[in-house]
Amino acid sequence: MKQKWFWGTFVFLLLSASTVISWALISGPTLFKPQVISHVENDFNGQKQKTDFWVNGGSLTDLLPLIEKQWRDENWGSVGSDTNWANKLLRLPANDFDLTDQIQVRIYKKGDLYRVLGLLQSKDTEVTYGMTSDIPQESLDPRKAQEKWDFPIKPPIVKSALYSVHFQRMRIGVILSENSPNLLTVFLENASKAGFTARILSQLNHEKTFLLSNKAKRIIVLFDDKNSQSCLSLVSVDHI
After folding, report:
1. How many distinct helices (H) and strands (E) make up the chain?
2. Intervals of CATH 3.30.160 along the chain
């Protein structure tokens, strides 16, 4: 799926903020009875997205079959033939790292709804952190994404993927394109036309970080160009 980069980024950024561990969760046999840490609702490409962050006793390898059985009974079908997207999301070379017992990212579908499952195994205890996010299929329509783009800078036309997320005061944007060497140049030209000035903050190999600013707004932009795939990630925080 061409939207896999975004799901992975979203999963790992927010899972890393979860620090609640209950010792009661690790007693007795492993059961899928998640303790919800946080429930989040945000706008994703103009559509409502609902996400739960939770913790469950038991190892990831013990817990995953229980989750999948329950969801199959609820008519959720796996996208990608039971594929763990973790290596691809982290852009790791194939077969170099086996993370299946530590990190799992899987995608399911039922009707017009996608469900993303993210699992992270705690190193110190038999506890697994999880994220479950339900996303309407309509929000993945590229035309809708272009119409609902949530930044003042017009995005370049891309064939791969375009996402914008609005969560409370934070706005996140992702522009993903394959074989587009001019992606950054076009974006910075659009930023200039919109009244933004660009200042490079860092540059390392294939990664560059910029600060875009005008009188009202500042936007951090990370450009990553690797393996014939270019990605622009944007983050801004609204003023109170």
Report:
1. 5, 12
2. 142-237
Kind and range of the H or E run holding 72: helix 60-73
Which tens digits make up the pLDDT trace of 131-167?
999 988 888 887 888 888 889 999 888 777 888 888 8
Instruction: Give the C-alpha separation, 30 to 33, whole Å.
Output: 9
CATH number for the region 142-237 comes to 3.30.160
8-state DSSP, 74? T
Name the segment(s) of the chain with CATH classification 3.30.310: 4-139
Strands of 218-226's sheet, edge to edge?
A: 77-79, 103-110, 113-121, 127-136, 47-57, 35-44, 161-167, 170-178, 229-237, 218-226, 207-213, 197-204
CA neighbor of 78 nearest in space, from 89, 67, 92? 67
Give the CATH class of 4-139.
alpha beta
Contact call for residues 206 and 224 (beta carbons, < 8 A): yes
Q: Which tens digits make up the pLDDT trace of 161-211?
A: 888 888 888 899 998 887 677 889 999 999 999 999 999 999 887 789 999
Cα distances (Å, whole numbers) of residue 211 to 41, 150, 191, 197, 235 = 28, 18, 11, 8, 10
Question: What does pTM read for this prediction?
Answer: 0.67
